[in-house]
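Structure tokens please, single chain.
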Amino acid sequence: MEQGRYTEQDRHTGSGGYPNQGGYPGSGGYPNQGGYANQGGGAAGPGIYPEQGRYVQQNGRMDWGAPLPNPSNGGGQNGNQGKNKFLLPIIIGGLILVIIIAVVIFVFVWKFVINGGKDVETIGDYYVTGCKEVMKVREKEEKDSKVIAKLDNGEKVSLIEKGGGNYWKVYIEAEEAIGYIDYHYLTNKSDAAMEPVTRYVNIKKEDSLSILSTPDVDGASLGIVKRGDEVTVLAHPDDTYAYIYAADESAYGYVERSKLSDEEVKDEPKEDTGAGNANNGQASADILGAGSPPVNYQGVYYVKVTKGYLALRNAKAFDTSNEIGKMYNGDYVQAIRTDEIYWYVYSPSLGAYGYTNSEYLVSSTSSAASAYSNVYYANVASGYLALRDAQAYDSANEIGKIANGQEVDVVDSSNGTYWYVYVPALKRYGYVNSEYLRR
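Here you go.
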């Protein structure tokens, strides 16, 4: 009957049927606007997977349809950008700190490893000059010491200390090395450095040319060269002087450039140099005693005695009564007549003519200096050691200046503080304060 059939309203109504608008309503069904709702513990939203829907964390589970993160509260990508801006200064600061640490380590290594724990203090720059191939820098102040560097002409070194003998202690910045170098091949002017060249002394036969200790007329004489002698030019310190090495004299020093020739100089023919022209053509007999230097002479010779002196005499014989002067080791004479044992000579140190025993004369100043084995060296921190003509400190008795490291041959050390010595560089005898000498 009518009441016993299922009516439209009886079918799945909101209370249990399936009406058109029914299904699983918002309280549990699947309406069109229903998704995965969060009210029922499931997941709901406007549509199945609408574009604006997304998963976000909420209360421990994923919530679909939560809003995008707000840039103002540091969320999302813009939030990361904020964090990056905060980290950038930290990164830059870290890099600067690393650089500072690296610099400190480098300075430490330089100071305490490379330079032996102390800064290198120098007192002037010098330049290599006059070497044929390379200049060897040695580990110690010895000619056979280990070579630690090799330098070319013109390369710079910085002087640390002037040592004894021929070697100075220097610092080579380009090699970061400290060693010893022969100071004869150094110049304090960069434009003076040069390759060594051979030159010849070009002066009159009767003249002699002094090798000077300094490039000026007041320099001490370190040796004598004559017409035709060969020398090696090591440097050109200025337009007037050349710095040379004279092998025959074993001497380094300065001579006038105008007295040197590029071409070999022929020796002039020897003239009759008898007594008649010994003293500017005065008497035909030998002049004995004081007089002016001779116009002509046969050569220059040096006194070589192991002790005492060599007498200049007014007769050709050994006799205490005929002495007219005393010549010491290293003094030189101009030989006028050499046909007997007793030569007729002129002594520049005495300014006198006379006879002397030729057995005590040699042709080289180095041979004369080698007569003494009691060799010392000047040892002064600054300035010079004075050579004096008396055993006392007095500015009026200075006769020479001895540079630090120059050789001093002791003749007599029995007179207390002031010793009697011969100085090869000055070719002179005198007294020095022994407190400023060292082996």
